[in-house]
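Notes from hallway chat w/ T.B., transcribed later so I don't forget. T.B. wanted the structure written out for a chain they're using in a teaching module, and asked if we could keep both sequence and structure tokens in one place. Agreed to drop them here.
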Amino acid sequence: MPVNPFYISRRSFLKSVSMTAAATALPAWFLERDRAEAAPLPDLPAPNDRPHIALVGCGGQGRADATNAFRHFGDIVAVCDVDENHAAEAAKQFTRDGKTPEKFGDFRKLMERKDIQVVINATPDHWHTLVNLAVAQSGKDGYGEKPLTLTIEEGQHLIKAVEKYKTVFQTGTQQRSDRRFRLACELIRNGRLGKLKTITVFLPAGLREGPFKSSAVPEELNWDFWQGQAPSVDYVKERCHLTFRYWYEYSGGTMTDWGAHHNDIARWAMDVDGPVAVEGKPLTQPIPGGYTTFSEYEVKFTYGNGVVQTTKTTTDENIFGGKVNEKGQSNGLRFEGTDGWLWVNRTEIEASDEAIIKTPLPDNAIRLYKSDDHMGNLFDCIRTRKSPIADVHVGHRSASICHLGAIALRTGLKLQWDTKTEKFTGDHAKEANAWIGREMRKPYDYSFIG
């Protein structure tokens, strides 16, 4: 009998799965299940049938997101940035077959192009909401970087818009499309740790530097537009581009940066909308004249199911998650229950007993939304009009946990939270509810997009 070069015996398949599992720390049963259930790969769009995509916010993360979309799913036909150099670099990068994307300095003009179906939004956090609202209002589908919003109130506005205009929207919390995190959450949802008691979330510490000096605005940068809804100040280069994350005016430090990922996984594992109480304490104070978010902190969230989550910083990693101390504490999540513990991050998953991970879940176990490609999931859902794995509701609820943590750190109060009304209750309700939204500097308020 001739050998079929495309035939793989079950024994060979299981051997290859076991080798893959050893390399990735994922159990063979989980990999085999995923392989057995894998849907046929969809045909890639024909050259003349690729959706037109626009990129708003052309920094490093934006160009990385656009590259993922550009791989297989569509063509980048327009780019927008208030920094002319960033827009020019993106236009050059995404030129294909002699066709260069059109450059814009105002995203509202970009939205007027009827031939654009999808917008990737990778602006700084304080611009996320207005751009995403404009995407929805123009009838386009969108991919919005995390955290979804600058405030809890903004998320409430965005949910209404996405639902009203029936757009498909994916939040860029890509850990939802990582098999390690999906496996961890399925194991916990199915009681593999017994009754869940505590979660400890470790985030890289932020930057604590300053004071900084102001300088002349670079010619290529529209500084007033970049500041947007935030209070107007003199140009300081550390406020802009990569390090905007460490200024409370534009973001929330690592609480909203890394926290948008790991706090989201904690919520996914519990299947809850959010905590019922939160309190926090900064471990260091910002340097006057420097970054305005807390670099080191500890926040305690209490959930209605009795689980207590502590989110704390580690100084053993840099802001990118790279090791500063090889033997120190990594970022990630530790779940502890009555029957053991489980640890997971982007490179590893382990438990107090290897049987917690290696023993297959039963056929009737709770199963979670499966996505192994975050950008691919968006484009699949654009075709089917189904909700993506990290839709606007997921993005809002997970960002809200981060915002609650930031509010607790800044107020120093023990706060009670109602997940249904999305309001603070209890003794400090009036003071705390003033933090749910922020005053937006005109003209960069909701009227800016009509």
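Follow-up for T.B.: The CA atoms of residues 18 and 161 lie 46 Å apart. Might be a good example for the class.
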